[in-house]
Design a protein that fits this description.
The chain has 376 residues and is of the alpha+beta class. The protein has twelve helices and 18 strands. Helix content is 33%, strand content 28%. The structure holds flavin-adenine dinucleotide.
């Protein structure tokens, strides 16, 4: 194309986080000419700050669980094609309280328990000896989860789209406006038959009124990387606190009794939205979190009191002190109290898509497929 000529795309994607990349992948797979536009030089948002934990079990019943279930398979396929290592698979949801056991027993009777199973204390100690000192009554085992190192996986996903799927990337380019057929950027206008805006938690630049009407705000999370404890976890670990946070369990009536007990015993954890996820990296270090604080502009600081709550839960679950903290960071994602996903049509042939709960990586690839197949 000669200098000054106008490039025309079938689809422009605003945002090179995991949701934007998922939409780009789905459109490229259909043979469409796709451009992805992002203000940053490389992915820097929630998509690289998360656990890289592609979870299925525990997602909200309905669309979220179905998207997560399909996405896990799509992630396994993408990992192979884009040379993204899968660091471990599966998850144990360990229970230290009888009320947690009751929630998990109820969960195991739902359709979402497909291929999951109950482990008694001996079964858990056999599968995850690292938890043997943690005084657990048992655990739910789920085989569906995958773990990738997001800070490496997302750049590889983008590179694969660019090099193998012919997707064009325009980085360090801020999008200032979107209308049907065109995208206004700091580098000029980009013409595209269709546009998908995947802004993550950037809520005030594009279609701010729509996002405000839908009650979208932001959630801040604190995260830790701990030193290699000397064992291989070989799967994600969660605990009782997760049972009142993840809708797949928390929406069960049995979760109310657990919530009451946790409020009495771990009120500070609940007040700071702390629950436990532990995953392991290739070098043996553990990624551990997290907390949840909600505000339109959350403060950017990691608070020691909150980290201490996370580490305290780690110590209870593993039955001993946590390894040294190597790294601390915060992340934010879009949040809405009454919906898990926004899929809006702010103009003809324009979609606005953001995941408003902390599960965007888990549902991304199937969500991208559905968004694209619906209008391209
Ligand atoms: C700490 C943390 C832990 C998490 N853990 C998990 C987990 O284990 N599993 C899971 O499934 N989910 C997890 N999540 C949630 C998940 O990471 C998010 O739901 C997901 O990454 C959101 O992806 P996104 O593409 O919408 O947003 P982002 O990754 O934030 O990407 C949005 C992109 O849009 C760009 N952008 C926005 N506006 C413009 C504009 N006007 N012009 C140009 N570019 C623009 C930004 O620069 C950014 O690159 C976690 C989130 C956090 C913060």
């Amino acid at each position: 194309m000669g200098q000054g000529a106008t490039e025309q795309f079938d689809l422009a994607v605003v945002g090179a986080g995991v949701i934007g990349l998922a939409c780009a992948k789905a459109a490229a797979r259909r043979g469409k000419r796709v451009v992805v536009i992002d203000r940053d030089a490389q992915a820097n948002g929630a998509s690289v700050r998360n656990f890289g934990f592609i979870t299925v079990t525990g997602q909200a019943a309905g669309d979220m669980w179905a998207w997560a279930r399909r996405s896990a398979d799509l992630w396994a396929d993408l990992a192979e094609q884009a040379a993204i290592p899968i660091l471990h698979r599966g998850m144990v949801m360990a229970a230290r309280r009888p009320e947690s056991v009751t929630v998990l027993e109820a969960f195991l009777k739902t359709d979402m328990a497909e291929e999951c199973r109950w482990l008694d204390a001996n079964g858990l100690a056999a599968l995850r000896p690292e938890l043997a000192a943690g005084e657990h009554l048992g655990a739910l085992y789920s085989p569906h989860e995958l773990r990738v190192e997001s800070r490496e996986a997302i750049p590889r996903f983008a590179a694969w789209l660019e090099q193998s799927q012919g997707v064009t990337f325009k980085r360090q380019t801020s999008v200032t406006g979107v209308e049907t057929g065109r995208v206004h950027t700091t580098e000029g206008i980009i013409w595209a038959d269709a546009v998908v805006v995947c802004p993550g938690d950037e809520l005030v630049t594009l279609f701010p009124d729509r996002l405000a009407d839908l009650g979208v705000t932001r959630c801040k999370l604190q995260m830790l990387r701990l030193a290699n404890p000397g064992y291989r976890l070989n799967g994600g670990v969660m605990s009782d606190l997760g049972l009142i946070r993840y809708s797949g369990y928390a929406d069960l009536p049995q979760a109310q009794a657990l919530k009451a007990r946790l409020l009495a015993e771990q009120g500070d954890h609940l007040a700071n939205g702390v629950h436990l996820i532990v995953v392991q990296s290739a070098d043996g270090s553990l990624v551990v979190g997290d907390s949840h604080h909600y505000a339109p502009t959350p403060d950017p600081f990691s608070h020691q009191t909150v980290d201490d709550l996370i580490l305290k839960e780690f110590a209870a679950v593993f039955g001993g002190p946590a390894p040294a903290v190597l790294e601390r960071w915060v992340g934010t994602y879009a949040y809405a109290a009454d919906r898990d996903v926004v899929i809006d049509e702010p103009a003809p042939r324009v979609r606005l898509v953001t995941v408003t709960t902390g599960a965007g990586a888990s549902v991304s690839l199937a969500l991208g497929e559905d968004v694209i197949s619906d209008f391209i």
